[in-house]
């Protein structure tokens, strides 16, 4: 079925078409000058020293744990309320995810107040995920990390250009990771970026993304090198120049796209002001936020009711999603004991509504009024 209002729309036009054609015509399509340019623009936009382009965010997270020395048997405190890639990346280095609950339906980020009780001698790092681009309580988390000598990895996939106390998300912890998968704020189909202010981490990330080799094909093809050594045990985690060309165009559009998303969120907040049956998380966030998605959480509800509401929205042409099925309930993680009541309530009752820059006020009005109908809340208004 074609939805009247999809969850997401790609913000692509002739600029992306031209960028790809120009790259193809340049005859250099693998990692090369466009990747370098995208990295330069990205680090400038985030005011961070280094940006390393990668194949996706999952590989960025894997490298983040390697760079920060997280290894076999180490524990990483993380939310369960995230895309499973965040958790799988912890396992790639044979470390153990230790799930921490979220604050609640009005703040879907990791509950900083619960982190310290989960720290053991084995804890090495905290993985934060800035949900929908809304910042975690980074002052408190960085203070805990300092006190217990822990590294902080930011999964900032949802938050390019989101701000926390004047700093861009992804630049506050030791390493920040971004995704350019199709439905992210910057879309290149697949792609990722690792950012850090640590020179050693950046150098090693560049080695590890390309088999631990000291030079890459582009340097050899352009006569800057003729051979290479292999000095570390690496991977093929490179981005390519066709995707980087898309990324450069998308990054140019990002500030304008996000401004429009701020207006879409405002329209939603106004329309939801008199709706009794839903929480709108992250109300009154003071600083600039990317608004990657627009989540709501049903009150006095359960998973069955939530699914009925979603089905009714779909029948009226409105696409929705769930962010996320909680990681700790997936078959491969559920054998461990977990006490995550807020995560479980929210994952059972969350609905992600359409969010993209070209979503109109009329469409937002239609979505919220349809939802009110479904929840039986339209009786008073007419
Ligand atoms: C999209 C996403 C990822 C994975 O990114 P890929 O680029 O697809 O590997 C990881 N974490 C979060 C929170 C995401 O939204």
Automatic annotation (TrEMBL):
Q: Which UniProt keywords apply?
A: Aminotransferase, Pyridoxal phosphate, Transferase
Read off the lineage from the record. Bacteria, Pseudomonadati, Bacteroidota, Chitinophagia, Chitinophagales
Domain of life assignment: Bacteria
Q: Which family does it belong to?
A: Belongs to the DegT/DnrJ/EryC1 family.
Matching entries from InterPro entries are given as:
DegT/StrS_aminotransferase, PyrdxlP-dep_Trfase, PyrdxlP-dep_Trfase_major, PyrdxlP-dep_Trfase_small
Extract the GO molecular function terms from the UniProt entry: transaminase activity
- Alphabetical list of Pfam families matching this protein: DegT_DnrJ_EryC1
Name the record gives this protein: DegT/DnrJ/EryC1/StrS family aminotransferase
Keyword Chloroplast attached: no
Gene3D superfamilies noted in UniProt: Aspartate Aminotransferase, domain 1, Type I PLP-dependent aspartate aminotransferase-like (Major domain)
């Amino acid at each position: 079925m074609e939805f009247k209002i999809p969850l997401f729309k790609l913000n692509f036009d002739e600029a992306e078409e031209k960028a790809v054609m120009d790259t193809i015509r340049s005859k250099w399509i693998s990692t090369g000058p466009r990747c370098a340019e995208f990295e330069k623009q990205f680090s400038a936009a985030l005011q961070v020293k280094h940006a390393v382009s990668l194949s996706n965010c999952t590989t960025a997270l894997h490298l983040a744990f390697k760079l920060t020395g997280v290894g076999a048997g180490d524990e990483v405190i993380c939310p369960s309320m995230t895309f499973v890639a965040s958790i799988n990346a912890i396992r790639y280095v044979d470390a153990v995810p230790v799930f921490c609950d979220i604050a609640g339906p009005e703040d879907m980020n990791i509950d900083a107040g619960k982190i310290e009780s989960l720290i053991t001698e084995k804890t090495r790092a905290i993985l934060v995920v800035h949900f929908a681009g809304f910042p975690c309580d980074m002052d408190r988390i960085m203070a805990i990390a300092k006190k217990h000598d822990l590294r902080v990895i930011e999964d900032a996939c949802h938050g390019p250009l989101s701000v926390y106390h004047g700093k861009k998300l992804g630049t506050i912890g030791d390493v920040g990771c971004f995704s350019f998968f199709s439905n992210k704020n910057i879309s290149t189909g697949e792609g990722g970026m690792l950012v850090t202010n640590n020179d050693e981490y950046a150098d090693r990330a560049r080695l590890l993304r390309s088999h631990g080799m000291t030079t890459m094909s582009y340097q050899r093809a352009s006569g800057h090198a003729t051979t290479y050594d292999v000095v570390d045990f690496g991977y093929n985690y490179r981005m390519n120049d066709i995707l980087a060309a898309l990324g450069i165009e998308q990054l140019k559009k990002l500030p304008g796209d996000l401004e429009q998303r701020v207006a879409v969120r405002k329209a939603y907040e106004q329309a939801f002001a008199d709706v009794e049956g839903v929480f709108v998380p992250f109300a009154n966030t003071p600083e600039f936020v990317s608004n990657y998605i627009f989540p709501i959480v049903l009150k006095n509800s359960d998973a069955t009711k939530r699914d009925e509401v979603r089905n009714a929205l779909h029948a009226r042409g409105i696409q929705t999603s769930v962010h996320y099925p909680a990681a700790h309930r997936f078959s491969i993680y559920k054998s461990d004991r977990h006490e995550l009541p807020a995560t479980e309530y929210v994952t059972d009752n969350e609905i992600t509504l359409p969010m993209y820059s070209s979503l109109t006020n009329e469409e937002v009005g239609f979505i919220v009024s349809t939802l009110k109908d479904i929840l039986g809340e339209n009786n008073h208004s007419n």
